[in-house]
Amino acid sequence: MSNTYTQFCKLEDVPVGGKKAAKINDTWILVCNIKDRLFAVSNFCSHQRKPLLSGRVRNCAITCPVHGAKFNLETGEALNLPATKPIPTYEVRVVDGWIEVKV
After folding, report:
1. Correct CATH for 5-102 of 2.40.50.140, 3.40.1410.10, 2.40.160.40, 2.102.10.10
2. What per-residue string of b and e applies to 31-59 under the rule 16 or more CB within 10 Å gives b?
3. Which of 46, 78, 85, 103 is the 20 to 30 A CA-CA neighbour of 67?
């Protein structure tokens, strides 16, 4: 894992309640804004590598739109079957209006 942050997008591109996926190097990252708190996780479900971008976010968790697996956005922990493995999480910060992620 790198010790440097990479610009992801402008903060205004991920308003409260919003989410955005983008590729940093070779890694697809999903950033979610929940009540002005940003979370960065892998954009792929650990069950069958389906994209999480269109999944529903509730109670600091995202649900895979394909099979219904839920993941804690803070820890990446799989919260229910069919997923049994966590998804990667990443450090995120805001600098000069830009969301930056450490991948």
Report:
1. 2.102.10.10
2. bbbbeeebbbbbbbbbbeebbbbebebee
3. 103
DSSP 85: S
Global confidence as pTM: 0.94
How do the domains of the chain map onto residue ranges? 5-102
Residues 4-16 have pLDDT tens digits of 999 999 999 999 9
What residue type is 37 in one-letter code?
R
Mapping DSSP onto H, E and C, the string for 21-61 reads: EEEECCEEEEEEEECCEEEEEECECCCCCCECCCCCEECCE
9-53 pLDDT, tens digit per residue, is 999 999 999 999 999 999 999 999 999 899 999 999 999 999 999
